[in-house]
Amino acid sequence: MSTRTLNGPSRCFALLGILFWALFTLFPLYWVVVTSFKTSLSVVGHATFIPFIDFEPSLQAWRELFSGERGEFFNNVIASTIIGLTSSVLATAIGAMAAYALVRFPFKVKLASGLVFFIVACGGYLAFYNAFGFSRAAAMIIAFAAALILSLATNRLRVPGPVLGNEDIIFWFVSQRMFPPIVAAFALFLMYTEVGRLGFKMIDTYVGMVLAYIAFSLPIVVWLMRDFFAALPLEVEEAAMVDNVPSWRIFTGIVLPMSVPGLVATFMITLAFVWNEFLFALFLTNAKWQTLPILVAGQNSQRGDEWWSISAAALVAIIPMMIMAALLSRLMRSGLLLGAIK
C-alpha cells in the first residue's frame, strides 16, 4: 500500500509514522558521525547532540586514525577490501553453480555413504596418527582423501538405507549456519596450525582467510541462489537443449545473464557478511591480514573505551558498504524480488 492511496488524516498519520521510523533508524548513524568529531571531554561530559552549539567539533579522532596511532589503518582497509571482494566473488560463483545443479538436476545421496565418510575420516585420522606415527596434518589429509574416495564408491553401490535428495542436500547446506561460529573458528585455527607445520602457512595469510570465508559464505549463497534459479523460466533452457547446446553454455550464456540481479543481491549479502565478520579474523589473523572489525574492536586503551576513536573507525567500516549498496540498489531490489517469486 502506498501513502498516495490514503486521504485526509490517514495520510498524515502514515507520513508521521514513516518520518518517526526514519528518524529512529538514522539517529544511531547520526550519533556515530557526531561522536567521531568529539573530544574526550565532549564525550565523558553531559550529552551533546549538535556541533558548534553543544560542543566544538574536533578532528582529533580522525587524525589519530589516519596517522597510524590507532593501528595499521590503511593495511586493515586494504586487507578487508581484498579479502571481502575475493571471497564474495568466488563464493557467489561457486555457490551459483552448486545452486543451479541442485535446481535443475536430481541428486541421490545414500545415507550409508555419509556414514562411511564419517567413520573412515575419524577412524583413519586416529589410526594414521596414533598407530602409524604420521603428523596430525598428514593423517588428516590422508584420512580425508580415503574417506572421500570410499564414500563416493559406496554411493554407487546398492546398499540398504534411506536415500537423500536435493531438498535434503539443501537442508544440509543451510544447517551449516546453525553451528556456533566459535566451533568452526577454533577448528579452522587448529587445522591451519597443523597445515602450517607441513610448510604451508595458513594463519594470517590471504589464502587462508579467503578459503575460510568462502566456506563460511557458501551455505547462504546456495540457499539464496536456489530460489533465484528456480524462478527463471525453464522453457528457455529446454529450447536450448533441443538445439543441442551444451549444459555449460546454457548456464553461462543463458542462465547467468538472466540472473544478474539475483547474483548482485547475493554478492552484496555475502560481502556484508564477510566485511563485518569478526570471529574468524580474530582467530586466523594476528598482524598482516587483520580486517576492519579487528581495528574497530581495538579502539580502546587502559583508560577504557574511547568512543570518539571507535566511532571514527566504525564510520570507515560502514561507508564503503553504504556506497556500494547505493550504487547497486536497483539490481539488489529486483534480485530480492526475483527470489521472492515462486
Structure in a nutshell:
By secondary structure, the chain is mainly alpha-helical. 73% of the residues lie in helices and 2% in strands.
Topology:
Blueprint: H1 9-36, H2 40-44, H3 60-67, H4 73-104, E1 109-110, H5 111-131, H6 136-155, E2 163-164, H7 166-175, H8 181-196, H9 206-230, H10 234-242, H11 247-258, H12 260-276, H13 279-284, H14 292-297, E3 300-301, E4 304-305, H15 307-327, H16 329-340
Search tags:
single chain, about 350 residues, mainly alpha, two-stranded antiparallel sheet, 4 strands, about 75% helix, globular
Characterise this structure:
The protein is mostly helical. The model has no long low-confidence stretch (mean pLDDT 85). Helix 3 packs across helix 15 (307-327) and helix 4 (73-104) runs parallel beside helix 9. The protein has helices at residues 9-36, 40-44, 60-67, 73-104, 111-131, 136-155, 166-175, 181-196, 206-230, 234-242, 247-258, 260-276, 279-284, 292-297, 307-327, 329-340; strands at residues 109-110, 163-164, 300-301, 304-305. The two termini are 21 Å apart.
